[in-house]
Amino acid sequence: MKGIILASHGRLAEGMLDTLQIFSDGAKQIEALCLMPGDDVAEFLEKLKEAIDHVDTGDGAVIFCDLLFGSPCNCSARLLNDSQYADRITVITGMNLPMVMEYEGARAFGMESEEMMETGKSGIIDFGEMLKSNNP
Fold first, then answer.
1. 96 and 123 in contact (C-beta within 8 Å)?
2. How many structural domains does the chain have?
3. In a structure prediction context, what are the per-residue pLDDT tens digits for the chain, which is 136 residues long?
4. Which residue of 5, 52, 73, 114 pairs with 65 in a disulfide if CB–CB is 3.0 to 4.6 A?
């Protein structure tokens, strides 16, 4: 089973992990990494490597990042060019709770990147418009 790393600016990753644990009793092989204002990006990269080594039990790890081209994403992308990590990680940006919850529940079955991204996209709804379309 692939490990999961949630990486974000600020405490988003910690909050997402906290919420995930409410819905997923005993979530395993998951770490949250938070890049705070003033943190050194090089140190964050080292923490990311340590987190990968910790959650990867042989099947690799998926790194969910908050923003495309943000520092957590850029650090993860650097590892895609590192022979020690390139074959072990998948980097997905634009993380949201439905995407992470779906993957956490299905990762033991080998869920693919396309499936988890579709789950994340399908959870974005204008609820008022949905109600209007269902109640003409």
1. yes
2. 1
3. 899 999 999 999 999 999 999 888 767 899 999 999 999 999 999 999 999 999 999 999 999 999 999 999 999 999 999 999 999 999 999 999 988 988 888 876 776 777 777 888 888 888 888 888 887 6
4. 73
